[in-house]
Q: What sequence folds into this?
Protein backbone atom coordinates (compact mmCIF):
# COMPACT_ATOMS: atom_id res chain seq x y z
CA UNK A 1 0.00 0.00 0.00
CA UNK A 2 1.01 3.59 -0.51
CA UNK A 3 0.81 6.31 2.14
CA UNK A 4 -0.41 9.88 2.08
CA UNK A 5 -0.26 12.53 4.82
CA UNK A 6 -3.61 14.32 5.33
CA UNK A 7 -4.92 16.39 8.23
CA UNK A 8 -2.00 15.37 10.42
CA UNK A 9 -2.50 11.64 9.79
CA UNK A 10 -0.75 9.10 7.60
CA UNK A 11 -3.28 7.02 5.66
CA UNK A 12 -2.58 3.76 3.82
CA UNK A 13 -4.24 3.48 0.43
CA UNK A 14 -4.16 1.41 -2.75
CA UNK A 15 -5.32 2.27 -6.27
CA UNK A 16 -6.19 -0.22 -9.00
CA UNK A 17 -7.82 -0.05 -12.44
CA UNK A 18 -8.78 2.84 -14.70
CA UNK A 19 -11.92 4.86 -15.38
CA UNK A 20 -14.39 6.61 -13.10
CA UNK A 21 -13.21 6.45 -9.49
CA UNK A 22 -14.81 4.37 -6.76
CA UNK A 23 -13.56 4.91 -3.19
CA UNK A 24 -14.07 2.01 -0.78
CA UNK A 25 -14.40 3.05 2.87
CA UNK A 26 -14.33 0.11 5.25
CA UNK A 27 -16.65 -0.32 8.21
CA UNK A 28 -15.80 -0.51 11.89
CA UNK A 29 -14.12 -3.90 12.22
CA UNK A 30 -12.38 -5.14 9.06
CA UNK A 31 -10.03 -2.69 7.33
CA UNK A 32 -9.59 -4.86 4.23
CA UNK A 33 -13.25 -5.68 3.63
CA UNK A 34 -13.10 -4.50 0.02
CA UNK A 35 -9.56 -5.68 -0.88
CA UNK A 36 -10.82 -8.62 -3.04
CA UNK A 37 -12.69 -6.14 -5.25
CA UNK A 38 -9.44 -4.39 -6.26
CA UNK A 39 -8.41 -7.42 -8.30
CA UNK A 40 -11.85 -8.22 -9.69
CA UNK A 41 -11.30 -7.90 -13.50
CA UNK A 42 -14.86 -6.74 -14.19
CA UNK A 43 -14.42 -3.78 -11.82
CA UNK A 44 -10.74 -2.97 -12.35
CA UNK A 45 -11.27 -3.01 -16.12
CA UNK A 46 -13.89 -0.26 -15.95
CA UNK A 47 -13.24 1.72 -12.76
CA UNK A 48 -10.38 3.28 -10.83
CA UNK A 49 -10.70 1.53 -7.46
CA UNK A 50 -9.35 3.27 -4.35
CA UNK A 51 -9.16 1.47 -1.02
CA UNK A 52 -7.84 3.13 2.10
CA UNK A 53 -7.51 2.44 5.80
CA UNK A 54 -9.30 5.00 7.93
CA UNK A 55 -7.44 6.70 10.76
CA UNK A 56 -6.95 4.23 13.60
CA UNK A 57 -7.12 1.12 11.39
CA UNK A 58 -4.43 -1.22 10.03
CA UNK A 59 -1.30 0.76 9.00
CA UNK A 60 -2.85 4.24 9.08
CA UNK A 61 -2.07 6.62 11.94
CA UNK A 62 -3.68 5.88 15.26
CA UNK A 63 -6.54 8.03 16.46
CA UNK A 64 -6.21 9.66 19.90
CA UNK A 65 -9.89 9.00 20.59
CA UNK A 66 -13.17 8.33 18.82
CA UNK A 67 -13.38 9.73 15.28
CA UNK A 68 -16.83 10.65 13.98
CA UNK A 69 -17.97 10.21 10.39
CA UNK A 70 -17.91 14.01 10.04
CA UNK A 71 -14.26 14.04 11.17
CA UNK A 72 -13.40 11.34 8.64
CA UNK A 73 -14.89 13.22 5.67
CA UNK A 74 -12.04 15.77 5.15
CA UNK A 75 -9.31 13.09 4.92
CA UNK A 76 -11.48 11.10 2.51
CA UNK A 77 -11.94 14.12 0.25
CA UNK A 78 -8.22 14.89 0.62
CA UNK A 79 -7.37 11.35 -0.47
CA UNK A 80 -9.60 11.77 -3.52
CA UNK A 81 -7.75 14.96 -4.42
CA UNK A 82 -4.33 13.41 -3.74
CA UNK A 83 -5.08 10.43 -6.02
CA UNK A 84 -6.74 12.58 -8.72
CA UNK A 85 -10.14 11.01 -8.01
CA UNK A 86 -12.09 14.20 -8.66
CA UNK A 87 -15.24 12.37 -9.77
CA UNK A 88 -16.68 9.07 -8.73
CA UNK A 89 -18.48 7.18 -6.04
CA UNK A 90 -17.78 6.16 -2.45
CA UNK A 91 -18.80 2.90 -0.86
CA UNK A 92 -18.86 3.06 2.94
CA UNK A 93 -19.02 -0.12 4.97
CA UNK A 94 -21.37 -2.50 3.25
CA UNK A 95 -24.42 -0.34 2.81
CA UNK A 96 -23.91 3.18 1.49
CA UNK A 97 -22.93 4.52 -1.90
CA UNK A 98 -22.49 8.27 -2.32
CA UNK A 99 -21.59 10.36 -5.33
CA UNK A 100 -19.13 13.18 -4.71
CA UNK A 101 -20.83 16.58 -4.89
CA UNK A 102 -19.84 18.59 -7.96
CA UNK A 103 -18.31 21.24 -5.68
CA UNK A 104 -15.69 18.64 -4.61
CA UNK A 105 -14.72 17.70 -8.17
A:
Amino acid sequence: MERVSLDGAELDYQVSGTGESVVFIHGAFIADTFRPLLVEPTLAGHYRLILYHRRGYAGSSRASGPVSVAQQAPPTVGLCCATWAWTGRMLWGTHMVATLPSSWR
